[in-house]
Amino acid sequence: MADLKTVPVLVPIGFHADSRKALESLFAVREFQKRDLSELSDDEKARIRGIASFGNVSAAMMDALPALEIVASFGVGYDSVDAAHAASKGIMVTNTPEVLTEEVADTALGLLLMTVRELPQAERHLRAGKWEAEGPYPLTHGTLRGRTVGIMGLGRIGIAIAKRLESFGVEIAYFNRSKRNDVPYAYHGSLEELAAAVDTLIIAAPGGASTDKAINAGVLKALGPKGILINIGRGTTVDEEALIAALQDGTIMAAGLDVFEKEPKVPQALIDLPNAVLLPHVGSASHHTRNEMGNLVVQNLKAWFSGNDVLTPVPECVSAGVRRHG
Ligand code: NAP
């Protein structure tokens, strides 16, 4: 096996701690500030061969590292890694699919229930002493009973959400760019069509150009006044200004969001809304699942620099036939 200890690998400050330790025991780790290579000397930049990242690897960053061979990204979504550019240069990109699917689906269902039945608001009512002082929390207008749930992005996480939803007794429909032949759920060929056919929309699609602001004022109008929007995918998929307006004027009933357009910045107008449930991007955020994700990042880097196939290459690199040379 190659002497991995001589392989320089960049790891951003704040990276998953146990994985950083594992990487330090295997490689010559150089820490850096996320998105910023300015602290690296030209000599260091010339020698870096791998990056362990949690997103944010631009084409410019890749171009500044002439010996770069692999970007091992922590997370299944890699919209902030320029995978097309990497593939065109023969640089491998890996992500962490599967190991987080069930955790994220659990979070999606939790967020859905919190939003429809106003559970965080009810809890705040109790903690503020209002139950004793003023009486019970008001009955909720929202209920899961009789709902039809549409899923945008019926992939690994979308399917895991749908399986859970089946046990709740709701109707399920979906929109992907292509229809699946292995599911019993109603397919709709556009987002507008799906939104018009359901009253609850869950986003589990990737970020990036193809979904940018796809949930716009028209889609929200089609979802309607009983409408619930849940976003567990990426914040960029929702036009946040249109969503705020739709929540303020009753175009839809409520929203539950785990992801935001410019996180960790969340618009004050969203924070002020009583009919929005807001989580700080915690979809996969348990020790169990983050450890699995970190382990996959380490295994991908280890495989690559040992001359073996990586475990989870992204589709852009598979179709471009990116392989290790030498
Ligand atoms: P996946 O298996 O690749 O599924 C993605 C699904 O989205 C596919 O069914 C795909 O079908 C569909 N899709 C892709 N582009 C689309 C578009 N433009 N319009 C409509 N549908 C589209 O990925 P996954 O593992 O389920 O992960 C999905 C996403 O969840 C990730 O990319 C990430 O952004 C997000 N995520 C969030 C958290 C969190 O903490 N909140 C955690 C993990 C993942 P077609 O190709 O047929 O369109």
UniProtKB/TrEMBL annotation:
<keyword id="KW-0560">Oxidoreductase</keyword>
<comment type="similarity">
    <text>Belongs to the D-isomer specific 2-hydroxyacid dehydrogenase family.</text>
</comment>
<protein>
    <submittedName>
        <fullName>Lactate dehydrogenase</fullName>
    </submittedName>
</protein>
<keyword id="KW-0520">NAD</keyword>
<dbReference type="InterPro" id="IPR050223">
    <property type="entry name" value="D-isomer_2-hydroxyacid_DH"/>
</dbReference>
<feature type="domain" description="D-isomer specific 2-hydroxyacid dehydrogenase NAD-binding">
    <location>
        <begin position="109"/>
        <end position="283"/>
    </location>
</feature>
<dbReference type="InterPro" id="IPR006139">
    <property type="entry name" value="D-isomer_2_OHA_DH_cat_dom"/>
</dbReference>
<dbReference type="InterPro" id="IPR006140">
    <property type="entry name" value="D-isomer_DH_NAD-bd"/>
</dbReference>
<feature type="domain" description="D-isomer specific 2-hydroxyacid dehydrogenase catalytic">
    <location>
        <begin position="39"/>
        <end position="314"/>
    </location>
</feature>
<dbReference type="Pfam" id="PF02826">
    <property type="entry name" value="2-Hacid_dh_C"/>
</dbReference>
<dbReference type="InterPro" id="IPR036291">
    <property type="entry name" value="NAD(P)-bd_dom_sf"/>
</dbReference>
<dbReference type="Pfam" id="PF00389">
    <property type="entry name" value="2-Hacid_dh"/>
</dbReference>
